[in-house]
Amino acid sequence: MHKVPVTPFERSEAPWTEDQVASLNGWQACGLVHPFTYGDGEDQVDLVATKDGWVAAPSGPVVQSWAHAFMADWSWRSSVHSPDNPSPHPVKCVFCDSMTTTGVCANCAEAKWGG
């Protein structure tokens, strides 16, 4: 399958596939840039990708329905940590407070995607 080159300005709109959600949440946790957030000051939280868009709380409403296209296709992982390119420094799992080098801890990966 031929892949069209992606520029930093292209957007990916929800709904997203499970693989895109995993890539988006991996990007959020990669530590390369400030993640997408919601709220101000002490009330600010990192957004979590779902198939329907970004949410600020597990059962909360969608607060954003787009992401930069490169965030949703794993192309970013060659320059930051991921399951194939672990970080030398632990970061928090995007779903819980466990520390991981891949953005998603093994327990959450198993629970959400079967491994």
Topology readout:
Layout: E1 11-13, H1 18-29, E2 37-38, E3 45-46, E4 48-50, E5 53-55, E6 62-64, E7 66-68, E8 91-92, E9 99-100, H2 106-113
Antiparallel strand pairs: 1-7, 2-3, 4-5, 5-6, 8-9
Report on this structure.
- The chain is of the alpha+beta class.
- The mean pLDDT is 79.
- A three-stranded antiparallel sheet has the order 4-5-6. A two-stranded antiparallel ribbon has the order 1-7.
- The chain contains two helices and nine strands; from the N terminus they run βαββββββββα.
Low-confidence stretches: none
Order of helix and strand elements from N to C terminus = EHEEEEEEEEH
Given helix and strand content, the structural type is alpha+beta
* Largest sheet entry: 3 strands, antiparallel
Count of individual beta strands: 9
The end-to-end span amounts to: 26 Å
Helix percent band: 10-25%
Taken from the alpha-carbon principal axes, the silhouette is globular
| Rg over CA atoms | 14 Å
User: With helices defined by DSSP (H or I, 4 residues minimum), what is the helix count?
Assistant: 2
Strand content: 15-25%
Strand order of the largest sheet: 4-5-6
Mean pLDDT: 79
